[in-house]
Design brief:
Largest sheet: 5 strands, antiparallel
Distance between the termini: 18 Å
Number of strands: 28
Structural class: mainly beta
Radius of gyration: 19 Å
Strand content: 35-45%
Number of helices: 2
Length: 376
Amino acid sequence: MRLVFLCAALLLAPQLFGLPRVALQRVPDGGLQPQVVTDHSGIVHLVYYTGDASAGDLWYIHSTAGGFTQPVRVNSVAGAAVATGNIRGPRMAIGRNGRVYVAWNGSDKTGPAMRAPMLFTRLNDAGTAFEPERNLIHQAWVIDGGGGIAADRDGRVYVFWHAPLPGTEGEENRRVWMARSDDDGLTFAAERVVGGNAVGACGCCSLNAATDAQGDVYVLFRGAHGGVHRDMNLLVSRDHGETFSASDISKWDVGYCVMSSEAFAQARTGVIAAWETEKQIHFAPVTPASGVAGDWTPAPDNTANRKYPTLAVNPAGEILLAWTEGMGWKKGGSLHWQLFRSNGAPDGPQGQAPGVPAWSLVAAYARPDGGFTIVY
């Protein structure tokens, strides 16, 4: 896997290779839908998708002093993942003692469309392989858009997805469900509905989740009320998922499913959220005291069909916002990014590069030298 070690060298050694302030790197092995997390020790963790879009595999690598590890397959059932639609693939979180957790929508290799599972696995105690994936759904079937996962330093793991209330159908009857583990993902309580009950959920849109340094939990999801009200909604829990407050942070009236995704990043002052509204990308800080998103900052120069945002924040508080343009069903597009100062002002010109594959996303993280790397 020479490509893996080349990726590692480029990502981890800017002082040797003279990386620019924003470096670009392809997903190893021609993979799709990268997810990147840097843990508290500075280790870079990467999960990505390979294979047929309707039934593929997930792979995991992480950085070491000498490069990256060899890829380890995340799913034990071959073809258990799905990339179709861009937003149903892997989500990753890092928990206590650096344990890696991955959740994803199961493919038709794991169940029929109406009973597709929400799959979860974790790295084993030795850190050498992933445990066999488990389905977390007991009653909240008919998932469609992608789910989210978050973990804290005290052993809690949260997996979220949206699905109709049992015995109902339609977007207005969709709710955000949460399965929570209090023992590092060893066991999970049965899923339950959390927050935002009256707004439904956009059927083919993703949601995303995160925790902050205090262990508070954040969820972004797109509602679907009245057939056209597809606003972006923020859920915040300050009691480890026992209760959630809900706020509507960005209104959008549109009469079709927009297949959108969201992103979070941890900054010195708290969590920053990014999302799509009216085919434009925005980001905003979440006010720590209130749990409500602050003033939006849009990506500059509004152009057509901006989607799939990702965020990264360096120790100085500078922000990288990246997204795609021109993506569509079975259609690739281009990568775009903008740097912002810690006060939210744009820093330098917008960057761009061609070649985001169909069914894929982009991911980004801050490097130790203060620069950023975008994986696509």
